[in-house]
């Protein structure tokens, strides 16, 4: 008689491949965290151009991850696991060889597509391969642990390689890890679940166009002006496309995003906080990285240490958070988590860019990490415990998309806020600062041009004015460039401090709003143990049984 719980062929190989794949995806995703200041100085780019290094990855990841889940179900998941690893190799190789920022954007976008395949496919593969519910639960926990490990190690790895070599070595490490993942994945067991699955091409197209147009307009508007015709057109295209996406999803038989779930009050609140709360979290991470790296030019190694304070609690507190979700109403867990995130943001908003040091961020970043640990798993728990069991996988996948959309908005919105404030202050005060510096016509013209085109971030990164002292001679040791006058550099520096102080405060307010919403909106929500008793089963184990729709991250 056969053992129904015996491990299927290549189960261990599949588990190893999936865990390694999700770690590689998270390493690639988290890599810019400690390096934003280095990128800004090496490429000498504006604030919006710097933002796109992170936003390009997140945007393509969010746009394609649901579709990759469907493709894996229809045509086999193993080939997507292999293809995702190769896309990360290609994207990281382009970034490692980039001599200008546009190639970085392309590389990050390609790597983001690869990660958009690896996240859902790796989880679906181990859920499908596990022999029973208990094995699935252990496998999913291990998968989540490797994801957290990648998020914790990536900024520190990038910082160390940059400190003792070059930031390009960090992308080389990503290439090596992705190639190892590809080789290991060759031994994984393939799986699929094509029944009832089909592509939603109109939904995919309108979602892609809408998100890309909206994020582009938000990013560029801070530099070229919110009333600029191209920015207005970008917003219009984004809104119209996303409205079209909603109409399509409500009418199609097999939608990408199950909007009918939002008729459930508790689920709708969890969805809203998934976007707003996770925007606050990643917005604070990004703002810290820019404040220290691109503005104060702090060492990437020190920024990497701070990311350990953020991601460490998410890894170390897994047992505690699991018990809290199981025995305490998620209303209290979520409210506490968002309160900690809000406190972290408020503390950071009070820092003075002229006097603050990187050690000032240790306490707020630790609070941020604990708050994130309390919220990220609880949001999914609320989503899956408030819908019928047959819809649990759909609810989880939809919540995951909303959470990732919040992550994508983090860098974009905080940069839009901070750069708008900083660039306006620079434009208002640059004429007086140039006059105070007593510059010649050529140097004054160059400074005004940089201020108009690149804004505060570009001026802050330039130690010299890119015009030789004697314009009639070639630049060189006997004809050096003039050092940037202190009046101009101080203006740019303080303007960026004002901008990111406001960004910290906005993130704090969004986290606080999420906490208030969960405190009052989730009144009556029950702990997971009570929901499991009502359903007659363990919800998290049953989620694994509908893994065709699961996209938990």
Automatic annotation (TrEMBL):
Q: Which SUPFAM superfamilies match?
A: MFS general substrate transporter (SSF103473)
In terms of superkingdom, the source organism counts as Bacteria
Protein name in UniProt? MFS transporter
InterPro entries the record matches = MFS, MFS_dom, MFS_trans_sf
Q: What is the lineage of its organism?
A: Bacteria, Bacillati, Actinomycetota, Actinomycetes, Mycobacteriales
Write the record's keywords in alphabetical order, separated by commas. Answer: Membrane, Transmembrane, Transmembrane helix, Transport
What membrane topology term does the record carry? Multi-pass membrane protein
Q: What stretches pass through the bilayer?
A: 50-68, 80-99, 105-128, 140-161, 167-187, 199-218, 224-248, 269-291, 303-325, 332-353, 365-389, 401-422, 500-523
**Places the protein is found:** Cell membrane
Domain Major facilitator superfamily (MFS) profile: where? 14-526
């Amino acid at each position: 008689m056969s053992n129904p719980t015996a491990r299927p062929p290549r189960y261990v190989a599949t588990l190893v491949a999936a865990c390694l794949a999700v770690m590689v995806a998270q390493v690639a995703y988290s890599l810019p965290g400690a390096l934003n200041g280095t990128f800004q100085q090496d490429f000498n780019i504006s604030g919006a151009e710097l933002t796109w290094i992170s936003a390009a990855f997140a945007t393509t990841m969010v746009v394609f991850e649901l579709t990759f889940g469907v493709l894996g179900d229809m045509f086999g998941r193993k080939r997507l696991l292999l293809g995702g690893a190769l896309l990360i190799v290609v994207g990281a190789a382009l970034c490692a060889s980039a001599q200008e920022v546009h190639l970085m954007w392309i590389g990050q976008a390609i790597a983001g597509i690869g990660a958009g395949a690896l996240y859902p496919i790796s989880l679906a593969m181990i859920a499908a391969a596990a022999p029973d519910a208990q094995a699935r639960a252990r496998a999913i926990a291990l998968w989540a642990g490797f994801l957290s490990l990648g998020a914790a190690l990536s900024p520190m790895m990038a910082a160390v390689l940059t400190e003792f070599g070059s930031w390009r070595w960090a992308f080389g490490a990503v290439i090596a890890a992705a190639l190892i993942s590809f080789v290991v994945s060759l031994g994984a067991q393939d799986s699929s679940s094509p029944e009832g699955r089909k592509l939603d091409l109109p939904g995919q197209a309108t979602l892609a166009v809408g998100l890309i147009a909206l994020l582009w307009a938000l990013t560029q508007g801070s530099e070229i002006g919110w009333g600029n015709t191209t920015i207005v057109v970008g917003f219009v295209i984004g809104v119209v496309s996303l409205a079209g996406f909603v109409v399509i999803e409500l009418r199609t038989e097999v939608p990408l995003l199950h909007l009918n779930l939002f008729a459930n009050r508790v689920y709708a609140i969890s969805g809203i906080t998934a976007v707003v709360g996770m925007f606050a979290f990643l917005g604070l991470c990004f703002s810290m990285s820019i404040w220290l790296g691109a503005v104060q030019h702090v060492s990437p190694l020190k920024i990497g240490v701070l990311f350990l304070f953020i991601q460490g609690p998410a890894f170390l507190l897994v047992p505690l958070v699991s018990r809290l979700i199981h025995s305490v109403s998620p209303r209290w867990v979520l409210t506490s988590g968002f309160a900690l995130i809000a406190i972290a943001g408020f503390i950071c908003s009070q820092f003075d860019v002229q006097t603050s040091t990187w050690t000032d961020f240790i306490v707020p970043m630790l609070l941020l990490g604990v708050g994130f640990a309390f919220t990220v798993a609880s949001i999914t728990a609320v989503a899956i415990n408030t819908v019928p069991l047959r819809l649990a996988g759909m609810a989880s996948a939809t919540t995951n998309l909303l959470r990732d959309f919040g992550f994508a908005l983090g860098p974009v919105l905080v940069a839009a806020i901070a750069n708008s404030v900083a660039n306006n202050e620079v434009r208002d005060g640059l004429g007086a600062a140039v006059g105070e510096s007593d510059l010649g016509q050529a140097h004054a013209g160059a400074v005004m041009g940089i201020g108009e085109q690149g804004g505060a971030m570009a001026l802050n990164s330039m130690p010299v004015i890119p015009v030789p002292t004697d314009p009639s001679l070639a630049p060189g040791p006997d004809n050096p460039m003039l050092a940037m006058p202190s009046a101009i550099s101080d203006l740019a520096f303080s303007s960026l401090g004002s901008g990111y102080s406001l960004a910290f405060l906005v993130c704090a307010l969004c986290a606080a709003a999420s906490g208030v919403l969960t405190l009052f909106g989730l009144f009556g929500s029950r702990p997971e143990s009570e929901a499991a008793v009502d359903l007659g089963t363990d919800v998290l184990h049953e989620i694994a049984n509908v893994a065709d729709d699961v996209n938990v991250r």
